[in-house]
Automatic annotation (TrEMBL):
It is found in: Cytoplasm. SUPFAM superfamilies: DNA/RNA polymerases (SSF56672), Lesion bypass DNA polymerase (Y-family), little finger domain (SSF100879). Its main location: cytoplasm. The record marks Y43 as: Substrate discrimination. It comes from Nocardia flavorosea. This is DNA polymerase IV. It is an enzyme of class 2 (transferase). The gene is dinB. Its EC number is 2.7.7.7.
Length: 423
């Protein structure tokens, strides 16, 4: 019915998604193709990533209140939010570290870039979790389970953080599944196995059941979702009220028609490549940048968009990062123009790369606008014009994205085998 790549069961938290976004894309469906991806103990994991002496230890992030606790601290009964004093009573040897908000924002941005590289249908719920709809990607990227495994591996490899993923046919079940798979797990609820998975769980796992409702239900002997489902909507009304009865009854029978809501059109596109810890020559690094530029240029043109700002992202051996950007005088979708800009940024960053060692290179194109057919792109004077891009795009469309590759990339593969998706 379902599988778990992870071990321990975690406690589910209840969140409500914010109101529906402006564009509903894909409805809930019988196949399990909605992913709920949720970073594990997010702030605490970032601290353990950046400060090796914290790994394997109980870590509390916060000041007066615990904002995040590592799994080592959670195993001792620490919860969030909880008073630090109370948490230290439960776990006296815990190490308390102050929050570093900008580090968390940066890590979140990097994880969301991987989400958007996985599928265009991403609904962010908070800084560390999102729904992803991967229906329709079977042909290009494989089954949802395969996609989820790759997503988890990429977040671990490229951002250095553990992330749990639940897969199901509805958002609610996907979220319950990710919570049940934690920490660092993957759990898929097959179509047909929903109730078998859901009914043994405590009622607190249902969205909308907080401590007050849980207590009201407990007084009536209802502690498991299966018991609540048996009671029926009519039976629930006197306990929780008419509206909540309808809502909880539907969830208990795994009915959740909400769609994965995507936001407005994207303001940027990006791609990155993890390089591992081996030292790379400047030529190799340039070659990877060529590859990234080719991919992004093609995505830009396929989406009929143009960009004005080119952003180079670098990550070093010690997980520190640097970002370099350049804004062009005019918007462009011309690969050669983007490449020259990116190479200029890379050259300027070479001393830093030499000093710290490069483990990841990323490129983002921002300040995106819809391409105006009347607007001329302005390539640099020397070098191939837009007709080369058009020709290469056509060849790649007909024969696959590896049909044409730059000489510098031969023998290196395409980098991460990420499908080219509509932007
Ligand atoms: Mg989380």
């Amino acid at each position: 019915m379902f599988e778990s790549d992870g071990g321990l069961r975690g406690r589910g938290r209840t969140h409500h998604s914010p109101g529906p976004g402006p564009r509903a894309r894909i409805a809930a469906r019988p196949q399990a193709s909605i992913l709920h991806a949720d970073l594990d103990s997010f702030y605490a994991s970032v601290e353990q990533r950046d400060q090796p002496h914290l790994r394997g230890k109980p870590v509390l992030v916060g000041g007066g209140v615990v904002l995040a606790a590592s799994y080592e601290a959670k195993a001792r009964g620490v919860r969030t939010p909880m008073n630090i004093g109370r948490a230290l009573q439960l776990c006296p040897e815990a190490i308390v570290v102050p929050p570093r908000t900008s580090e968390y924002a940066q890590a979140s941005k990097e994880v969301f870039a991987i989400f958007f590289d996985t599928t265009p249908v991403v609904e962010g719920i908070s800084i560390d979790e999102a729904f992803l709809d991967v229906a329709g990607l079977r042909r290009v990227a494989g089954e949802p389970r395969t996609i989820a495994r790759e997503l988890r591996a990429r977040v671990r490899r490229e951002v250095g953080l553990p992330i749990s993923v639940g897969i199901a046919g509805t958002k609610f079940l996907a979220k319950v599944a990710s919570a049940a798979s934690k920490p660092d797990g993957l759990l898929l609820v097959e179509h047909g196995g929903e109730l078998e998975f859901l009914h043994p769980l405590p009622v607190q796992r249902l969205w909308g059941v907080g401590p007050v409702t849980a207590e009201a239900l407990r007084v009536h002997g209802i502690e498991r979702i299966g018991q609540l489902a048996e009671l029926g909507e009519q039976g629930l009304r006197p306990i929780v009220g008419r509206a909540a009865a309808r809502h909880l009854h539907a969830l208990a029978w795994a009915r959740d028609p909400r769609r994965v809501e995507t936001g407005r059109r994207r303001r940027s596109i990006g791609a990155q490549r993890a390089l591992g810890r081996r030292a790379r020559t400047p030529d190799e690094i340039e070659a990877y940048l060529h590859g990234l530029t080719d991919r992004l240029g093609r995505r830009l043109r396929n989406a009929d968009r143009v960009c004005r700002t080119v952003v180079l992202r670098l990550r070093f051996d010690d997980f520190t990062r640097a970002t370099r950007s350049h804004t062009l005088p005019d918007s462009t979708d011309h690969t050669e123009t983007i490449l020259r800009t990116a190479l200029g940024l890379l050259t300027a960053a070479m001393p830093l790369i030499h000093e710290r060692g490069l483990t990841l290179i990323g490129l983002a194109l921002t300040n995106l606008e819809d391409a105006d057919p009347r607007q001329l792109t302005l390539p640099f004077e020397h070098g191939p014009g837009p007709e080369l891009d058009t020709t290469l795009d056509e060849v790649r469309t007909r024969f696959g994205s590896s049909a044409v590759t730059r000489a510098a990339l031969l023998g290196r593969g395409e980098g991460l085998s990420v499908p080219l998706l509509p932007d």
